[in-house]
Predict the structure.
Amino acid sequence: MHCNKILALKTLGAYSSTMLLDLHVHTTFSSCSELSLETMLRSARSKGLDGVCITDHDTMESTHYVTEGVQPDGLVVIIGMEYATPQGDFLIFGPFQRLKPGLQARELLPIVEGQGGIAIAAHPFRSWRPLDVSALNWGAHAIERYNGRNNFEENEQAESLIEEWGLTATGGSDAHSLEELGRVPTRFFDSICCTADLIEAVRQGRCKPHMPAIRHSAPEYRALSRV
């Protein structure tokens, strides 16, 4: 995956020193989301975002409807997926359009590493969908420190896990609606214009969650089967 650096320079304004990306966004290609791809693309910049990562559940279907990279309005679009394993959910970025679902973490994470991608352990302490911490032995690159659909306690528990494993901390809105989009972005200290840039920055720890103002999860979120 190659970046069009000239386009990025023109559109992003000669490489801003930091960029805000929402790393965890679900569109209607996830059955539990009401946020259409069109609405997300139209609204993300007004939410203060420089980029969005589309992470639908076990699919990269949106690759057929939007071109990754810098859009005409300057928004950077990166497509990954939220991959469900029996040991927890991972946001994965890389060439995984044909990755079969249902793998164990011990199968998934070496594949991600072997193909030069990254895996971010999503919402590791969510009470009803927690991470089996032993899965980190297989090669995750980052941990979602803040998730916009977690409550305060669930998010706070992630801090000690990040320190113990020495992994990069990220934030993600876990947006399923326009209201949630951009709620918990991640700040990058490098210019990001494509998946390769994102992968490198996360691997190098060149990012951190952006001071989110997180509300407790609403009860109706718990009723969704895939969040």
Remarks:
- The CA atoms of residues 192 and 198 lie 6 Å apart.
- The longest strand covers residues 19-25.
- Confidence is low (pLDDT under 50) at residues 5-15, 216-225.
- Residues 152-165 form the longest helix (14 residues).
